[in-house]
Amino acid sequence: MSENKSPLLLELKKVGKTFAEDIVALKDMDLRIHSGDFISLLGPSGCGKSTALRIIAGLTTPTLGQVDWKVNHGSGSIGVVFQEATLMPWATVEKNVWLPFRLQNKSFQETKDEIEHSLELVGLKEFIKSYPRELSGGMKMRVSIARALVTDPKVILMDEPFAALDEITRFKLNNDLLALRETIGCTIIFVTHSVFESVFLSDRIAVMAARPGRVIQELIVDEPYPRGETFRTSASYGIICRKTSDALKLSMEN
Prior knowledge:
This protein is of the alpha/beta class. The protein is 35% helix and 24% strand.
């Protein structure tokens, strides 16, 4: 594995998580995230990918081990995108994106420029007055991404955000996500159970074993950005997908 020269952003050290009735979701999970990484957590359903993401986000606490942040990660420094867009149906697009600022007791008027900029980044500036019921599934997810971006976070955590979308929309949003990353230069931790998605998006893939979840192998996707259809249809993409698929199969045996 090639050495990452970027500054270390955070580290999971022997993280474990046990739920009621002695359900061990994570055990001895180690993971290092560097500034600028696009890392995917890849593994079978129920392996603790989402639990690990929630621990990084501070939405739940580990039973054992620790998350060691190397930088200040106060309010607004982490953006989270869930599998469901989780938009407020009674609020317009711009008011949905305002929510993180609202939780910081900042008014809509004083944050209006940031809200418009965030929606412009995801291609929805013309829909700021629309309501969620007027949007497609892909557009709703874009609003959710804009909401995660609006506070200019250091890290964006994405929990299978495109899993419920059709393949064409999913491919389009994968392309748009990489273009967005090129624009804003953020660190992304992306949960998926799709080999193809993880290889297309990531520069590093952390393959997780079935329960108890932990990282058993890390794969480097040593292919340049930007990536598009040329990469998706290339021989190297197919080779990396097969290697990743083999690692995923091995993870189910551990």
